[in-house]
Amino acid sequence: MRSIESIVAELPPSSSATAVVGEGGGGWLYGWLVECHGLWHNVLMIVPSALFVLYLASQAKRSFSKVSNGRSHVVAALYAILWLVSILNLAWCSLQMWECAPGKQFVWSVISLFTTSGMLFLEVSLIAFLLQGNHASGREALTQTFLISALAVGLDMFLKGIYLFGFGVQLFDVSTNGSQWALWVVHKLLLTGVYGLIFFMCRSRWRERLPARPAFQNYISIMFCLNAAALLACGLAAHGDGFGLWLYDITVICYHAMYLPLLYVTFLADFLQEDDLHLENVYYSEMKDAGFFDVDWDSCIRK
C-alpha cells in the first residue's frame, strides 16, 4: 500500500497546498482565526467587540429617543462618535491577520491609524470634559471639548503619519523590533501622566473641581493602571525583552476589547437608560456615598 506522503508528493502544487491548509483546520476560516496572533488572541479581540456592537444595536431605538429628547449636546455627540468608533474597532479586531500579510501592510497601517485615533479622540474628549468641572454642559462645553480633542488627536495623527509614511516605521506591527517603541513610550508616558494627575486630583482637596461621581473616579483609576502597564511594556520591549512584548499584547487586548464598554457604562448608560427622576436619585446617592455632603451635614448639626 502506498503511503500518504507519496500520494501527496505526486499531487499538483495547488492540490498539495489545499491539502495542507485543510489539515490546518478549515481553509480561510482557519487563517482568519488562528494565523498571525493565534486563536485566543483573535477570539478575545473579536468576540467582545462584536457583542458590544450588537448591544448598541439592540438599544439603538431607545437610546436614539433619549438622545434626541435630551438636553446634553455632549452626550449626543459622544453617543454618535461611540457608534462610529465601535464599528471601526470591530473591523480592526476582525482583520488582525492583515498585520502579518505582506501585501496588506499599507491598508493595515491606515485602518490602525484611524481606529486608534478614534479611540484616542474619545479618551481626550472625556478628559477635557471632566477637567471643565461639574457644570460642563451645552454647546459651549461641547465646542471646547471637541476643539481640544481635535488639536490633540490631529497632532498625534500627524506624528504617526510621518513615522508610517515618511520614515516607513511600522508602528502597528509589534513583530518588528525597531524604532516604533520610542514613539509608543512617549505616547503612553503622556497618557499615564494625564490620568495620574486626575487620579491624584480625585483624592486631594481639588476633587470638588471634578464631577462628583465615583464611577468617574473608577474610570480614571482603570485607565491610569492600564496606561502605566502599557508604558512599562513599551519600555521593556524597546530593550528587546520578551516579557515586554507579551505584556504589551495583553494591554492591547484589554484596551480594544474593554475600553468602549467601559466608556459606555461610565458616561452614557445612565443617560440613555434611566428616567430623569431616577437619574437624579442615582447621582445624589453616589455623591452621598463619596462623602460630598459630610461637611454640610456636620455644620447643620452644630447649628
TrEMBL record:
GO terms for molecular function: G protein-coupled receptor activity. Keywords: Membrane, Transmembrane, Transmembrane helix. InterPro entries: TPRA1/CAND2/CAND8. GO terms for cellular component: plasma membrane. Pfam families: Tmemb_40. It is found in: Membrane. The chain crosses the membrane at residues 39-57, 77-98, 110-133, 145-169, 181-200, 220-239, 245-269. It comes from the Eukaryota. It is a multi-pass membrane protein. PANTHER family: TRANSMEMBRANE PROTEIN ADIPOCYTE-ASSOCIATED 1, TRANSMEMBRANE PROTEIN ADIPOCYTE-ASSOCIATED 1 HOMOLOG. Belongs to the UPF0359 family. This is Transmembrane protein adipocyte-associated 1.
